[in-house]
Amino acid sequence: MRDLAVLVARVAVGLIFVAHGWQKFTEWGLAGTSAAFGQMGVPLPSVSAWFAALVELAGGAALVAGLAVPVAGLLLALDMVGAFVLVHAGNGVFVSGNGFELVLTLAAAALILAAVGGGRFSLDHLIAPRLIRRAGTAPAVRQ
Fold first, then answer.
1. pLDDT at 53 exceeding the cut of 70
2. Are the beta carbons of 52 and 24 closer than 8 angstroms?
């Protein structure tokens, strides 16, 4: 049951991140994302736009696939902590007022996935199950 829950969480959270990363590349463009970041007071808006777009798109895809989940989860959580601190924290809780509820939820979900790993239904488990067991992100098989 745990592995199924991790799969559902990975796919759901990953798809949300993919959508946001894709939006930064295609709907707004990196120039538009950078300009918006600059207006919000994000430092190094061009670098930050590239970082956010790449981490959200590639990290979200990695979560969906279950590939490098601890690394992807940590980078995504860091991305959301930046969004929380630099943009949303002072706006209250609710998204309707540009608040922090979405970024805080996504940061927490990404951090949990980084801690628990991709589970049995992941590329990580398929590619390197022994490494995952040694790292402590999957229970060892009892004999």
1. yes
2. yes
CA-based nearest residue to 119, from 66, 62, 59: 66
Q: Is the pTM of this model over 0.85?
A: yes
For CA atoms 106, 109, 115, 119, the dihedral sign is: negative
Residue 131 has pLDDT above 70, yes or no: no
Instruction: Name the DSSP letter for residue 95.
Output: G
Instruction: Look at residue 90 and give its three-state secondary structure.
Output: helix
68: left (phi over 0), alpha (psi -120 to 50) or beta: left
d(CA 69, CA 7): 11
Cα separation, 132 vs 88, whole angstroms: 35
pLDDT of residue 129: 73
Q: Residue 141 class from Cβ within 10 Å (0-12 exposed, 13-18 middle, 19+ buried)?
A: exposed
Mean local confidence (pLDDT), 2-23: 98
DSSP characters over 23-44: HHHHTSHHHHHHHHHHHTT-SS
Q: Give the model's pLDDT for residue 12.
A: 98
